[in-house]
Amino acid sequence: MYEHYKFVNTPLPYAYNAMEPYIDEKTMKLHHDRHLQTYIDDLNKALSNYPEFQDWTLSELLVNIPSLPQEIQTEVKNSAGGVFNHQFYFDNLANPAPPAPTGELGEAILNEYGSLDLLKEEFKEAGLSVFGSGYAWLIVNANGQLKIITTPNQDTPLPMGMCPVLNIDVWEHAYYLKHYNMRNDYIDDWFHVVNWDKANDNYANCFAVGF
Question: In the CATH scheme, what is the code of domain 103-208?
């Protein structure tokens, strides 16, 4: 994520109702226009009096939180994480979606998990295991291995030296209007709109940038 202060909420790359019937239009509007916008506003506010950090990209902020003044570290960590995580989530959705990953990502999934179905099983278990709010991720670790991890709240894999390939938001605001408290059903529906082509691009980019 290469944008920097002042951060803006760019439009979704599809219509609000594009993920129907799997993710409803009202949820997409609220999720993008209100929840993501709040994180953007809070991040801009936190950086407004610190011009020395205003040319840092979103990724640079997230991997260098300890270098920031202590009084804004928590706010920047939470807000920048919220911006990164949401943008990554929205950018990796499509409807109709590719039926399966191809290319290098497809090969890596077969090598690491044996099949796409087995990957989905483990990914779903990870998403369901998040207590409260957070994310499940498919990442490339520092050894170049494909792994599934979870993060709480708005933490990201970046400070851990991991490169994200795919994520699912399991905060309740991502699914409650349609799926109520049935996170299990939401994850099943989300698999119908995973943009595997974009995930394959993300996977290739992980190695292009040195992971």
Answer: 3.55.40.20
